[in-house]
Peptidase (Paenimyroides viscosum), 337 residues
Amino acid sequence: MKKLLTLILLSSFTLISCKDDEKPDEEPSKITIKTFDNAKVAFGEGLSQSAEGTFNFPANLDDVKTIKMYIKDICLNKDCDEWDRYANLYAKDKTTGEWYELGRFINPYWVGNEKLERGYEIDVTDFKSLLSGSTELKIYTETWNAKGRKYSVEFDFEKGTPDYKYSAVVPVIQYNKSSIDGVPYGKEFDTNKFDLTRQINIPNDAEIAYFRTIISGWGHALPGTCAEWCVKTHNIKLNNTNTFQHKLEGIGCAKNPVDNQEPGNWKPDRAGWCPGMVVPVRFNNIQKSMFGTAFTFEYEFENWTDNGSNKEGAYYAISTFVVVKSNSPINKPTITN
């Protein structure tokens, strides 16, 4: 009887020990936040080319490694604007009220991007300092009919150790409200309206800094049907020295997985973009020797002259941001005209 009681007690202890050793539920490796849901943008009476909303993101992003944005471009039964339209998505800076371009994409012809499981994917980790707590977003499409486009957008906040603990981002230039609000190309333009020069001061305690640029060419001006179809190379000049080059050339339109855009003219390469694809981001690292001192920035287009035979003209829609990061608290860079 004594042996039997001992075995019962040992069994009970073992059962209790197993329960105590169980691991608590692990935290999810990512948090998905849904924002716009079938939001329609269109042109016409009572319609708008943009949609805005306020959404709640995680308040503390210390343990967030990356932030990915996914955009579903919805067009069922070809009930959308059939043309390849300029489109982008913004977040509002809570301090200044300025809209920051998170990403840019071009609608496909006739269809949506249903062939992509989650839609267009854009890494927006550089805008981490904006995407916390209550955040205002805006999505825009340069559509000119009542059919317009519909979008659903969500963000993945992926847990992990970030590359740097602190970061900040500020715009250097933004002429990106639409393709025709871009900088005129091939002729003189009003430098008060389109100023491509700035003075930049990066905090001395930054550990890394870089430019983040999105640029796409529009229009069919001659010669060369610029800026949509001609290959041009532009320069970022720092302290009047050509420092970085951006070549506006094809990015492989014919290989686009959104390959059901018939009868649209989606396969030929354009100046740095494709119908049904994200416009790529161009990154340029800034030398540490420039941190802590003011330097001049200028975005300079390759020389080309519009002969005036096509009234449509040529334009470059562009945004450039400067991103700084550090493992100690850091101030924003300062930008002056």
User: Anything to note?
Assistant: Confidence is low (pLDDT under 50) at residues 1-23. The chain has one helix and 20 strands. The first strand starts at residue 30 and ends at 34.
